[in-house]
């Protein structure tokens, strides 16, 4: 069946300007898998300068986003479409590749990581599948293009990408050749930057069902290499929130993890908040007290981690209580340090009462 995304007006405008281009990668894979297509990337045998000339002649904006590597972004309808000139690898070092342009579609496909990512599709919907990617996708099999060990040695990040795609598309036993090559190549993970490792771990943890991939990562030694403090058995039935799942399976120090994987400040703070007691209980006043100081999403996350997922809808639906007084409201009763102390005392009283006292009641309490 012809994929619906091929009828997208903006995409059609770009393809009309660069008629030798094909859709490649994730858009083709997800369309065949029946998954909604979001980002659409294209490839073409035309050199990048010719692509820019063609786009501008058609009245489209052309941005040289990575022109040294053959990538131009076409802007149509306020949307960007990356167009990359076909390439083949000249040299690789496990992290980066030196490439040369080519007009050979199969050579370009041969440098990609997995068969399910090596397919391309022409504007009329014709599928080009040089390495059996469509069959692998139907079978739920993530298989490297060509020799698995060779693909891994070109870029060791592909080890983690294997588990990401296995978590999302894999079914049943993993490809034996891939697993053997991963076991042999685990040591290469050490040369990857922390940012690249965390980026892939985050995607694995965001998959709908990552448990099998995490278990396989532990079995192959990959988890010990990138997240040795993880306990995949603690994943349970948590929703597809990578930070929540990380908080569940990670047994070590959060600050040490944040430094090692170069987590953002917001990610670190979220993990610390999720791991901070108390966990919510089925008590209306206690829930209000928690929500007065902690955002709903964090309280809900603590409920998940405590095995109290049934509370989550209730927590998310609750309005956060807001203490009705500010310091200026108490200036008639105290000043200086005493004012701050009085404000804290009244708020503690408000909290103890379940956060239901209104402004008038809090002022009365302040009067003593």
Overall 3D shape? elongated
Task: Tell me the CATH architecture of the domain at 1-139.
Answer: 2-Layer Sandwich
Strand content: 5-15%
CATH T-level topology of the domain at 1-139: Beta Polymerase, domain 2
Mean pLDDT: 94
> Helix- and strand-based class?
alpha+beta
The level of helicity is: 40-55%
In DSSP terms, counting alpha (H) and pi (I) runs of 4 or more, how many helices?
19
What's the arrangement of strands in the largest beta sheet? 3-4-5-2-1-8-9
Low-confidence stretches: none
The CATH class designation of the domain at 1-139 is: Alpha Beta
Main pleated sheet: 7 strands, mixed
The total count of strands amounts to 9
Rounded to the nearest angstrom, the radius of gyration is 27 Å
Straight-line distance between termini? 76 Å
CATH homologous superfamily classification of the domain at 1-139: Beta Polymerase, domain 2
Element order, helices and strands? Answer: HEHEHEEEEEHEEHHHHHHHHHHHHHHH
Give your account of this protein's structure.
This protein has 368 residues and is of the alpha+beta class. Among the domains are: 1-139, Beta Polymerase, domain 2 (2-Layer Sandwich), CATH 3.30.460; 276-317, no CATH class; 327-367, no CATH class. The chain is 47% helix and 11% strand. The protein has 19 helices and 9 strands. The radius of gyration is 27 Å and the shape is elongated. It starts with 8 loop residues before the first helix and ends with a helix. The mean pLDDT is 94.
């Amino acid at each position: 069946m012809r994929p619906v995304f091929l009828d997208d007006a903006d995409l059609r405008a770009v393809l009309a300007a660069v008629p030798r281009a094909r859709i490649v990668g994730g858009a083709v894979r997800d369309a065949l898998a029946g998954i909604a297509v979001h980002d659409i990337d294209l490839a073409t045998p035309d050199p990048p300068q010719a692509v820019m000339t063609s786009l501008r002649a058609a009245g489209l904006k052309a941005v040289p986003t990575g022109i040294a590597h053959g990538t131009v972004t076409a802007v149509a309808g306020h949307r960007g479409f990356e167009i990359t000139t076909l390439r083949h690898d000249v040299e690789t070092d496990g992290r980066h590749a030196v490439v040369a342009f080519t007009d050979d579609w199969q050579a370009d496909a041969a440098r990609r990581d997995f068969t399910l990512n090596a397919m391309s599709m022409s504007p009329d919907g014709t599928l080009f599948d040089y390495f059996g990617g469509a069959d692998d996708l139907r079978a739920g099999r993530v298989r490297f293009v060509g020799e698995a060990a060779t693909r891994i040695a070109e870029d060791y990040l592909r080890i983690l990408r294997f588990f990401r795609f296995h978590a999302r598309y894999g079914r049943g036993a993993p490809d034996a050749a891939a697993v053997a090559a991963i076991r042999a190549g685990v040591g290469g993970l050490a040369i990857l930057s922390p940012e690249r490792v965390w980026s892939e771990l985050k995607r694995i943890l965001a998959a709908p069902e990552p448990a099998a991939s995490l278990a396989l990562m532990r079995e192959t030694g990959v988890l010990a290499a990138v997240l040795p403090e993880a306990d995949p058995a603690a994943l349970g039935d948590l929703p597809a929130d990578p930070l929540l799942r990380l908080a569940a399976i990670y047994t070590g120090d959060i600050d040490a993890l944040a430094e090692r994987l170069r987590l953002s400040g917001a990610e670190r703070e979220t993990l610390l908040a999720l791991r901070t007691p108390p966990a919510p209980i089925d008590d209306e006043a206690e829930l209000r007290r928690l929500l007065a100081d902690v955002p709903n999403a964090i309280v809900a996350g603590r409920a998940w981690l405590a095995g109290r997922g049934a509370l989550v809808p209730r927590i998310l639906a609750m309005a956060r209580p807001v203490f009705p007084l500010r310091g200026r409201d108490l200036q008639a009763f105290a000043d200086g340090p005493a004012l701050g102390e009085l404000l804290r005392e009244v708020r503690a009283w408000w909290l103890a009462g379940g956060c239901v006292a209104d402004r008038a009641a809090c002022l009365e309490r302040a009067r003593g």
